[in-house]
Design brief:
It contains three helices and eight strands; from the N terminus they run E-E-H-E-E-H-H-E-E-E-E. By secondary structure, it is α+β, with helices and mostly antiparallel strands.
């Protein structure tokens, strides 16, 4: 059986945010076994899984990505929506727009320290829409 839910996360400030609980709160009860596929419907934000225990990891991710793709690069052409827009698209493409997670015993089968990240790359973003598909 397959179920699909579309929901919106509230606006988050620019940066990396652990949103595991926010995502789970939007889902129907999970099956005993299966897969959860999450897709973010935006081109300037991304979703991934990483360290969820130490908040310094979130800060370090933001610092590294800002070094890799800084704002105001002189050769960027897509600048109409502000200096953070094209770098946001590039960063989102580097991380990706979907993840697939195993479901075991009715729970996400994440590692001990893992959590779902919303990677917000815009300075003034609105809420973000996600599509959650559960395969059982």
């Amino acid at each position: 059986m397959t179920t699909q839910t579309t929901f919106r996360l509230p606006a988050h400030r620019r940066g990396f945010h652990v949103v595991t609980r926010e995502v789970l709160d939007q889902l129907p009860p999970l099956p005993a076994a299966g897969l959860l596929h999450l897709f973010i419907q935006h081109t300037s934000a991304a979703i991934t899984v990483n360290e969820a225990a130490d908040p310094d990891v979130l800060t370090d991710f933001e610092s590294v990505f800002n070094q890799l793709v800084p704002e105001n690069l002189p050769f960027l052409v897509h600048t109409m929506e502000g200096p953070d827009d094209m770098p946001a698209h590039i960063k989102a493409a580097m991380i990706g727009h979907s993840i697939t997670l195993p479901i075991t015993a009715g729970r996400l089968n994440l590692g001990t320290w893992q959590g779902i990240y919303l990677c917000e790359f815009r300075n003034r973003a609105s809420g973000r829409s996600l599509v959650a598909t559960v395969y059982s």
